[in-house]
Design goal:
With 370 residues, this protein is α/β, with parallel strands linked by helices. The protein folds into 2 domains: 163 residues, Rossmann fold (3-Layer(aba) Sandwich); 198 residues, 3-Layer(aba) Sandwich (Rossmann fold), CATH 3.40.50. The chain contains 13 helices and 21 strands. The strands form 6 sheets. It has an 8-stranded mixed beta sheet, sandwiched between helices. Helix 12 links the parallel strand 16 and strand 17. Helix 9 packs across helix 13. The longest helix is centred in the middle third of the chain and has 12 residues. The chain is elongated and about 80 Å long. The protein binds flavin mononucleotide (FMN). Flavin mononucleotide (FMN) binds next to helix 4.
Length: 370
């Protein structure tokens, strides 16, 4: 049984959750706790008194970074500040916690916590991405932050951490953004999907510890700690999903796939040749074709409509498990907010209010993944 947990703490207001985590789980696990010097300012005197977090080399004799790294079955950093993430990503070892990290051979669970602006800063995104090649980044998620703000940067909850540590999680594919079909080597047809709803779903699934394959348009940023696969046209999208779906449990088909494909001309069609007729051939129904190949894949389709019709016929035709409907006249492509209807084969499961797409993502996942 993996009972020895080495817990790292850094300077974040979210440290109150660290105290809750330790007091809840110390019955089942042996904790040894390391803190950055700043981290000590965010935990209570009572906690320091009871659990004696180590921060200074002089706190222990010998070579504690070696002994602690070898003692730990699990190494969890909760919360990880922007500063600590950057140090770890760049091999800085100027205290006990960062030196022990460098000594530790196995993947570390790292739970970032910070304000959204800090988290989305390209330097931090890049450092999270670097860390994710060796470690398991858990969260952050969208929710309440310091000074009453809301955003992406909230530390995941203690029980979720243990859910992730103790249970292996399913693999899930989330597609996001528009396809782009080439007319010639220069021109394309595409659509105005922003990919925001798919991205929000992928972020929330990552925060819950799932292995997420984020299949995104090549013009959309990858996610730092997902397995990212970029596509441009609908054929490339189909090929990626077909390959990844073999061992996946769910497919969230949020990408906006072109209804039509084109016989691409080579070179550049010039206006000098006068009017030009473009033949748009109906595309295959990508989600229907995938589901036909892999019946066990729990498949969630997304339907951008100009009305609120609960399109049970569409769901049945595609033979998928769930359909999320949104009215693009109310919330056009690119909106921050969304309002959805979620149906299965028989009934309406949710009619949401108008909420931030991250909150809608939570609602969809809570309903579909029990
Ligand atoms: C009230 C307060 C709350 C803070 N919360 C966070 C936070 O949640 N995440 C973060 O990355 N930095 C936060 N900071 C800034 C860090 O404490 C600061 O970057 C510090 O240098 C981190 O040190 P450490 O990484 O060595 O623990 C906060 C600062 C203050 C004053």
């Amino acid at each position: 049984m993996s009972n020895n947990i080495l817990l790292g703490i850094s300077g974040s207001v979210a440290c109150s959750k660290t105290e809750l985590l330790v007091s809840t789980y110390s019955k089942n696990f042996n904790f040894k706790i390391l803190s950055t010097f700043n981290g000590l300012n965010y935990i209570s005197d009572k906690f320091i008194e009871e659990y004696k977090p180590l921060s200074d080399w002089s706190d222990l004799k010998g070579s504690p970074h070696i002994e602690l790294a070898r003692w730990a079955d699990i190494f969890l950093i909760y919360p990880a500040s922007a500063n600590l993430i950057s140090k770890l990503a760049n091999g800085i070892a100027d205290d006990l916690l960062t030196s022990t990290y460098l000594m530790y051979k196995n993947p570390v669970y790292i739970a970032p916590a910070m304000h959204e602006e800090m988290y989305l800063n390209p330097v931090i995104q890049n450092n999270v991405s670097k860390l994710s090649t060796k470690n398991l980044i858990i969260g952050p998620r969208f929710g309440s932050l310091d000074i009453g703000d809301k955003g992406l940067g909230r530390l995941i909850e203690p029980d979720e951490v243990f859910n992730i540590i103790t249970k292996s999680k399913d693999k899930i594919i989330v597609t996001s953004g528009p396809t782009t079909e080439k007319i010639d080597d220069v021109k394309v047809i595409s659509n105005t999907s922003s990919g925001k709803q798919g991205r929000a779903i992928a972020i929330e699934l990552l925060a819950r510890g799932y292995e997420v394959i984020y299949v995104h348009s090549s013009n959309i940023e990858p996610l730092p700690h997902a397995k990212n696969k970029a596509f441009s046209d609908s054929k490339a999208l189909f090929n990626i999903i077909e390959k990844e779906s073999i061992d996946s449990k769910y497919l969230f088909m949020t990408a906006a796939v072109s209804d039509f494909i084109i016989n691409k001309s080579s070179g550049k069609i010039s206006r000098d040749n006068g009017p030009f007729n473009l033949t748009l051939n109906p595309n295959i129904d990508v989600v229907k074709a995938i589901k036909e190949k892999n019946e066990n894949l729990i498949t969630i389709g997304f339907s951008a409509q100009v009305n609120n019709e609960l399109n049970f016929e569409k769901l049945k035709y595609k033979n998928i498990d769930f359909l999320v409907i949104n009215n693009i006249l109310d919330n056009p492509f690119g909106s921050k907010n969304n309002k959805i209807y979620l149906i299965d084969k028989d009934k309406l499961l949710i009619e949401s209010g108008t909420h931030d797409k991250n909150e809608i993502a939570n609602l969809i996942i809570d309903t579909i993944i029990k």
